[in-house]
């Protein structure tokens, strides 16, 4: 076991030489939609002007709240680029740790609003992008209806008070549809009977619909880091549910981003320092070395002077 320590130390050095953009794996996730090409046509984050974003009314959302939002013809509209029709704009707390956000778009009368989500930091700078094919069809349950559902796990960078979610649909989404599961098939599957060979219904995509948004805070780090610590250059938005080829196509809105050739990261606060060290300890004690490395990387990016020492000490304790 001791012979593996040099290799482990080498992997730590190599890992920390790679700049971190976010914590999410770029797993391709698709809504079960009729038609083709939706993954390609919606693979690029929209380039929105700051003036358009400032005109939106951002609805504040608290953690552990579940909001139901009805998008109608009287809701706020955004018709810019491929974005078409009604949108929902939310302001989330960024000072309560990582956030887990569950977004549902309910299917009613075989119609559904196909959501895309653009996540912006406190400065309204794009930070993450969830295309419509990330939100997958879910069959109805005892307490739930047919719906498109996606879960967003975000970690706001320190020093921010709010981050923002823009939910919208596109021209390409409106030309597509979602294949549902016939209730008779769902019932037969549930009770173990033979599944009847009947066609499944199709839900048409529309410019209006009903959304539910549930937000809860977590102690563990989320998948995507939203915003930047002070003096750290901004990065392009991360596409969720896309291939690496698609990720290279992301375009951000034109805006002035101050660059620094030698960024100075301020030391983190004592509570933040303790949070990262405790999280590293828990990850290593659970045998999750990969997560501990990511926490170490993020802690040092925010200016932690003790995270590396904590990590190495615990790793040596496991090896000895």
Q: SSE order in H/E notation?
A: HEHHEEEEEEEEEEHEHEEEEHHHH
Number of strands: 16
Mean pLDDT: 75
Helix content: 25-40%
Q: What is the correct CATH architecture of the domain at 51-220? A: Sandwich
Helix-and-strand structural type: alpha+beta
Give the strand line-up of the largest sheet. Answer: 2-4-11-7-8-16
Any idea of the CATH topology of the domain at 51-220?
Jelly Rolls
Poorly predicted parts:
1-36, 239-266
**Helix count?**
9
Radius of gyration: 22 Å
Largest sheet: 6 strands, mixed
Which class of the domain at 51-220 in CATH terms? Mainly Beta
Gap between N and C termini:
8 Å
How does the overall form come out from the CA principal axes?
globular
Strand content: 25-35%
For this entry, give a set of tags.
single chain; Jelly Rolls; disordered N terminus; six-stranded mixed beta sheet; globular; signal; Maltose operon protein MalM; 25% strand; MalM; 320 residues
Short structural description:
The protein is an alpha+beta fold and 320 residues long.
How would you explain this protein's 3D organization?
By secondary structure, this protein is an alpha+beta fold. It is built from 9 helices and 16 strands. Strands 2-4-11-7-8-16 form a 6-stranded mixed beta sheet, with no helix packed on it. Strands 3, 5, 9, 10, 14 and 15 form a 6-stranded mixed beta sheet that branches. Helix 7 (270-285) runs antiparallel to helix 8 (289-301) and helix 7 packs parallel to helix 9 (307-319).
């Amino acid at each position: 076991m001791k012979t593996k320590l040099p290799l482990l130390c080498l992997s730590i050095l190599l890992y920390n030489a790679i700049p971190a953009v976010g914590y999410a794996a770029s797993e391709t996730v698709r809504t079960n939609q009729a038609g083709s090409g939706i993954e390609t046509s919606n693979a690029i984050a929209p380039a929105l002007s700051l003036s358009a974003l400032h005109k939106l009314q951002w609805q504040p959302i608290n953690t552990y709240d579940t909001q139901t939002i009805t998008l109608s013809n009287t809701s706020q509209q955004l018709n810019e680029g491929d974005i078409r029709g009604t949108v929902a704009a939310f302001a989330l707390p960024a000072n309560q740790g990582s956030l887990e956000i569950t977004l549902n778009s309910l299917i009613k009368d075989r119609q559904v609003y196909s959501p895309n989500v653009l996540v912006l930091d406190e400065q309204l700078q794009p930070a993450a992008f969830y295309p419509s094919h990330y939100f997958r069809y879910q069959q109805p349950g005892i307490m739930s209806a047919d719906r498109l559902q996606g879960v967003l796990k975000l970690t706001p960078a320190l020093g921010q008070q709010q981050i923002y979610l823009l939910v919208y649909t596109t021209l390409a989404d409106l030309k597509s549809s979602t294949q549902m599961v016939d209730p008779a098939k769902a019932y037969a599957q549930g009770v173990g009977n033979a599944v009847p060979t009947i066609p499944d219904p199709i839900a048409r995509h529309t410019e209006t619909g009903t959304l539910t948004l549930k937000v809860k805070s977590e102690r563990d780090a989320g998948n995507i880091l939203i915003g930047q610590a002070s003096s750290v250059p901004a990065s392009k938005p991360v596409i969720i549910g896309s291939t690496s080829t698609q990720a290279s196509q992301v375009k951000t809105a034109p805006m002035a981003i101050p660059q620094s050739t030698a960024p100075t990261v301020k030391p983190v606060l004592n509570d933040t320092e303790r949070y990262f060290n405790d999280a590293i300890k828990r990850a290593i004690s659970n045998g999750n070395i990969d997560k501990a490395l990511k926490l170490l990387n993020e802690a040092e990016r925010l200016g932690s002077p003790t995270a590396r020492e904590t990590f190495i000490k615990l790793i040596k304790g496991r090896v000895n």
